[in-house]
Design a protein that fits this description.
The structure is a single chain. The chain has helices spanning 2-29, 46-59, 72-80, 95-103, 133-140, 159-168, 184-193, 204-207, 214-217, 238-242, 263-272, 274-283, and strands at 35-42, 63-70, 86-89, 109-123, 130-132, 150-153, 178-180, 197-202, 220-222, 224-226, 233-234, 249-256, 286-287. With 306 residues, the protein is of the alpha/beta class.
Length: 306
């Protein structure tokens, strides 16, 4: 019996050693520029993340990033439960969330990389392309508004719903006149087919529509929004975002909880670096830092006709 116990203990030891060794080998295969990783992204900002990943993988051939879009509620739950190690969000971590990570001895690396805009859209048949933010807030608070027949969101747990609830200071969205789907594309399609509806979407879905959405996007208006501080109307453009005028702006972050120098760190450095910021600029969002421009100074004028 004693002999059997010794043999069993030896087998367990060898098995655990092999497992640890295998884990070590797997981690050693991943660096900041190679390996594979899953990144969970807020569904409302998926287009800009897809663009960044495409260029990153095209630059570093040994890197493979799988983008998994989820609602903000699902994304944060996955991060807190450590099911997701790297996420792209439309908000920073809260004090309570940071405390949970501290208890688990995890130090999240948070990197801001862009300023996004929540766009309000209407059917093309609606000639009025102006809307007051107060009207939307009143509707969210259950007050009557003759102009707004309904608000259309992508998902009850999305970042846009959370943003608008915080803005209106309500815990729940109204039960009447509010519609929700699963994706931003579904919101855009619904608004394009229904008069009087106001859609709430991430502006990136409008500036960079997928091929099957190009014609549908042409059937909607992006509304100019009057904020709560003045009587002017502003658009979800880079200029109005840069001048802090558009009232529905939000910062975007990549949060890395890998705990080691892996592909998450490499991608975060890329997206916040010069190339990544140029991709943000091209997408219609506002980069957190303006990419530099290289100017070639000639010592003499060259006559191309000669």
């Amino acid at each position: 019996m004693l002999k059997y116990g010794k043999v069993f203990g030896l087998v367990v030891f060898v098995f655990l050693f092999a497992m640890c060794n295998q884990k070590s080998k797997n981690e050693s295969k991943e660096t900041i520029l190679k390996g594979s990783i899953d990144i969970v992204t807020d569904e409302t900002i998926k287009p800009i993340v897809d663009d960044q990943v495409a260029v990153f993988e095209g630059t570093y051939y040994d890197a493979k990033i799988t983008v998994k879009p989820k609602s903000e509620g699902e994304l944060i739950n996955d991060l807190l439960s450590q099911k997701a190690k790297v996420v792209v969000t439309a908000r920073n971590l809260t004090k309570e969330e940071l405390q949970k990570f501290e208890k688990s001895k995890i130090n999240p690396r948070v990197t801001p990389f862009a300023v996004d805009a929540i766009a309000l859209i209407s059917n093309k048949s609606n000639n009025d392309t102006l809307i007051a933010l107060k009207s939307v807030i009143d509707f969210m608070q259950g007050k009557s508004d003759t102009r707004i027949k309904g608000l259309v969101f992508d998902n009850p747990n999305s970042s846009t719903v959370r943003y608008m609830k915080d803005l209106a200071k309500v815990k729940e969205i109204p039960s009447n006149g509010v519609f929700s789907f699963k994706t931003n594309d579904e919101v855009i399609k619904f608004v394009s087919e229904n008069d009087g509806m106001i859609g709430v979407v991430g502006v990136n879905w409008l500036s960079q529509p997928s091929p099957n959405m190009v014609d549908i996007v042409k059937k909607i208006n992006v509304l100019s929004v009057k904020g709560l501080k003045d009587n002017n109307y502003y658009n979800p453009t880079q200029n109005d975002l840069a001048e802090l005028k558009y009232p529905l702006a939000r910062d975007l972050f990549i949060i890395n909880c890998q705990g080691y120098s892996g592909l998450g760190m490499g991608f975060a450095s890329f997206i916040a670096g010069d190339i990544g910021q140029r991709i943000v600029l091209k997408s219609g969002l506002l980069p957190v830092r303006t990419p530099g421009r290289k100017l070639q100074i000639r010592s003499q004028i060259i006559n191309d006709k000669e």
